[in-house]
Design goal:
This protein is mainly alpha-helical. The chain has 11 helices and no strands. The radius of gyration is 18 Å and the shape is globular. The two termini are 33 Å apart.
Length: 235
């Protein structure tokens, strides 16, 4: 597969990028005490760590990756060849996606063994949540890169999504402790349906609305990438 060749090249660059390594490998470990301090344990802890992997290993890392490759003319050179646009974007995303999936699996197994979390009753919802989350945040990263001039500016342009999802999606505290009108609004953040589906994998819970909200975000992300994604440097 041609996209895999791009992914292999990106993987070499990924391991040389100290910032990407820190965000992907060390920051999730620093988050564990924070989640425990807000009484997250068992399934909520697993869901929180998976959500954090989506935000940092997928979304933030890919914003910087797309911007860096665009400004280095890598995307432009790849596009004049035989590769299709989806192949280029998937290949550039591949290392971050592999690292994120590895994180999610490792965290889930370790927490489940240490805390004693039972096997999920409906694992297909966990799979849908993870895959849907990866798709939506990859698309959001590509869309965000269109409004990011430099790699350094990614810290600014990605901040609204990171802050809203980190504090408003139910990762740090349950949404039902908030006023009902505010909780209803926060239910439509891109990370909220992912966490809802993850929790539904272990216990009965609503899944129709999270699936619809997640599908809408994937659709909006696809449209935004087709409409706004830039292949040429912003100079």
């Amino acid at each position: 597969m041609r996209a895999v060749a791009i992914g292999q090249a990106e993987l070499k660059l990924f391991w040389r990028n100290r910032t990407a390594l820190f965000n992907s490998l060390l920051m999730p470990l620093l988050l564990v005490p924070v989640l425990i301090s807000v009484n997250a344990s068992g399934v909520p802890l697993i869901a929180g760590l998976i959500g954090f992997s989506l935000l940092m290993a997928v979304y933030y890392n890919l914003v910087t990756t797309f911007v860096a490759r665009r400004e280095e003319l890598v995307l432009k050179r790849l596009r004049v060849g035989e590769l299709t646009d989806p192949e280029i974007l998937f290949g550039a995303s591949l290392p971050s996606l592999v690292v994120a999936l590895g994180q999610m699996l490792l965290f889930s197994v370790v927490v489940a063994v240490v805390v004693g979390v039972p096997l999920p009753q409906r694992p297909w919802f966990i799979l849908l949540g993870v895959l849907g989350g990866i798709a939506s945040f990859t698309l959001l990263a590509a869309a965000s890169s269109a409004f990011t001039r430099t790699v350094e500016m990614a810290q600014v342009t990605s901040l609204p999504v990171l802050t809203a999802c980190f504090f408003g999606s139910g990762m740090m505290f349950p949404l039902d402790v908030l006023p009902e009108p505010l909780a209803k609004v926060l239910a439509y953040l891109p990370l909220t349906p992912v966490l809802d589906l993850l929790r539904a994998g272990w216990a009965d819970g609503p899944v129709l609305r999270p699936l619809i909200v997640l599908a809408v975000w994937i659709g909006l992300g696809t449209y935004a990438v087709q409409r706004y994604f830039r292949w040429d440097p912003r100079r």
